[in-house]
Design goal:
- By secondary structure, this protein is α/β, with parallel strands linked by helices.
- 44% of the residues lie in helices and 14% in strands.
- The protein contains 13 helices and 14 strands.
- It has an eight-stranded mixed beta sheet with strand order 2-9-8-7-6-3-4-5, sandwiched between helices. A four-stranded antiparallel beta sheet has the order 10-11-14-13. A two-stranded parallel sheet has the order 1-12.
- Helix 2 packs across helix 10, helix 6 packs parallel to helix 7 and helix 11 runs parallel beside helix 13.
- The chain starts with 6 loop residues before the first helix and ends with a helix.
Length: 400
């Protein structure tokens, strides 16, 4: 089975751990073990609803073990719960418009199988989540990058690109976007840009893939309608996940869109439907009504961590480094001054036991050495303060 989108970050994580566990070498230079990593957007394990999931599982096994543990389709209750959540957003979610997968990464990883032949054009954001975009490249797609600013994807630049491509007789296979709590910048696309993006999709006949993994984790600001809820003509494929709001280990995500697209995606899901057991557990847990209360707990914790990170940045970083304040999600994006290289900074910080994601890991076109992504989701609060103090000390030393 093809690797899921997050497998790229996880593979890097394993490599980093392997490096850190290697026996130390004593010489003129000694690289410290990375003790504070802002690199990976991992969930905080202290927030997992393990007790509620255990109780839900025990109840399921006591009452419906014969169904949940046997061969069979995913839980009808899970489909119902997903439909209710989507319909609350204004997204039509009839049964033939839904596909459940092993995380949203698996579903996004099916896109090349359905849409891409070598040489096909795919439009992505810059920066973006390369864990997904790498799959498009491996399938032979020709990527065109649209810049992201403080308001998300620049849809005026997108319009110019679509117009130019049309003159060349080229219709992109799809546009991949993360409009809400963008990974890596944390930005949220405002309503007027979303409306224009959906209108452009209809005008040029191009599918928009809306990756909405972080939607529920809003700390501040007004909720903005999803692209899928604005779409009246079937040009948006909506993809989301339970990884951020329950736990990544449940490996459940879903897509909602035109039935013909859902059918094609399901055809390429060679292992068949997701396992009945985990789908019954998650469906039953959602039906208890405890998920929404749990999400509020997540929001409170991640908001505090985000604020702590931003306060530490304001206290420790040189004033010419700009940190974008997100309204939600897992990440803070920092723009560096022209005289600092993100890759060189990473090397220097690793010597002091701190790591982060350089912006070069977030662009498909080689850009990004002027920015870094800091993930605040996983680290304990004291480590956030410690890590930013170390990073700030390195930056100040460089600017002397």
């Amino acid at each position: 089975m093809a690797a899921t989108a997050n497998s790229y970050e996880i593979a890097d994580l394993f490599a980093e751990r392997a490096k850190n566990l290697a026996p130390p070498t004593y010489g003129t230079e000694l690289t410290k073990i990375v003790s504070v990593s802002f690199t990976y957007g991992l969930a905080d394990p202290t927030l997992f609803p393990d007790a509620d999931l255990a109780a839900t599982t025990a109840d399921l096994l006591a009452k419906e073990a014969a169904i949940a543990l046997n061969y069979g389709p995913p839980s009808a209750q899970l489909y119902e719960q997903i439909s209710l959540r989507l319909e609350a957003q204004g997204i039509a979610a009839d049964g033939d418009r839904l596909l459940i997968g092993y995380g949203s990464g698996q579903i996004l990883g099916l896109l090349p199988d359905v849409f891409i032949e070598p040489g096909d054009v795919v439009i992505v954001e810059g920066p973006t989540f390369l864990g997904v975009v790498a799959r498009f490249v491996h399938a032979g797609a020709r990527l065109i990058t649209i810049p992201v600013d403080e308001l998300g994807m620049n849809v005026d630049a997108l319009e110019e690109t679509l117009s130019d491509l049309k003159k060349q007789g080229i219709r992109p296979r799809f546009i991949y976007t993360i409009p809400t709590f963008h990974n890596p910048t944390g930005t949220t696309m405002p309503l007027f840009r979303r409306q224009k993006l959906v209108a452009l999709a209809a005008e040029y006949g191009v599918l928009v893939v809306e990756d909405d993994a972080y939607k529920d984790l809003r700390f501040q600001g007004e909720t903005v309608p999803s692209l899928a809820s604005l779409d009246q003509e079937g040009w948006v494929l909506y993809v989301s996940t339970f990884s951020k709001i329950i736990a990544p280990g449940v490996r459940l995500g879903f897509a909602c869109g035109d039935p013909a697209i859902i059918e094609r995606l399901a055809m390429f899901k060679s292992e068949g439907p997701v396992g009945p057991f985990v789908s019954h557990v998650v469906g039953r847990y959602c039906a208890t009504g405890k998920l929404d209360a749990h999400i509020q707990k997540l929001i409170a914790c991640y908001k505090h961590k985000c604020n702590l990170l931003l306060e530490a940045i304001a206290a420790e970083f040189p004033s010419d480094i700009v940190a974008l304040r997100p309204d939600g999600g897992f990440f803070v994006w920092c723009k560096l001054p022209p005289d600092i290289s993100a890759k060189a900074l990473l090397s220097a910080c690793a010597q002091q036991g701190v790591s982060f994601l350089p912006g070069t890991r977030c662009y498909a076109n080689g850009q990004g050495d002027d920015a870094i992504r800091l993930a605040f989701s996983f680290q304990p609060k004291d480590k956030i303060v410690e890590g930013i103090a170390t990073l700030g000390a390195v930056l100040r030393e460089w600017q002397r």
